[in-house]
C-alpha cells in the first residue's frame, strides 16, 4: 500500500512527523507539544458532541 492509498490519519501522521523532523524538533519537546494538541482536539471534539 502506498502512502497515497493510506487512510487520512496515516497520511497526516506522516506529514506531522516529517514537519517535526525537518525542523529538528527534539523528541521530548515534540511529545509535550503533541500532548497539548491532543488535549485541545479532545476538548473540541467534546464541545462538538455537546452541540448535537
Question: What report would you give on this structure?
Answer:
The chain is mainly α. It has two helices and no strands. The protein has helices spanning 8-22, 27-50. The radius of gyration is 14 Å and the shape is flat. It starts with 7 loop residues before the first helix and ends with a helix. This is DUF2496 domain-containing protein. It comes from Oceanisphaera marina. InterPro entries: DUF2496_YbaM-rel.
Topology (elements, then pairings):
Layout: H1 8-22, H2 27-50
InterPro entries: DUF2496_YbaM-rel
Organism: Oceanisphaera marina
Protein name: DUF2496 domain-containing protein
Give a brief outline of the structure:
Pfam families: DUF2496 (PF10689). By secondary structure, the chain is mainly α.
Order of helices and strands: HH
Strand content: under 5%
Radius of gyration: 14 Å
- Tell me about the biggest sheet? none
Q: Count the DSSP helices.
A: 2
Unreliable stretches covering 5 or more consecutive residues: none
Helix content: over 70%
Q: Characterize the overall form.
A: flat
N-C termini distance: 36 Å
Structural class: mainly alpha
Count of distinct strands: 0
Output mean pLDDT.
Answer: 95
InterPro entries: DUF2496_YbaM-rel
Protein name: DUF2496 domain-containing protein
Amino acid at each position: 500500500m502506498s502512502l497515497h492509498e493510506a487512510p487520512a490519519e496515516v497520511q497526516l501522521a506522516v506529514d506531522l512527523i516529517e514537519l517535526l523532523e525537518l525542523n529538528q524538533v527534539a523528541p521530548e519537546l515534540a511529545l509535550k507539544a503533541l500532548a497539548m494538541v491532543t488535549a485541545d482536539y479532545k476538548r473540541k471534539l467534546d464541545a462538538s458532541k455537546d452541540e448535537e
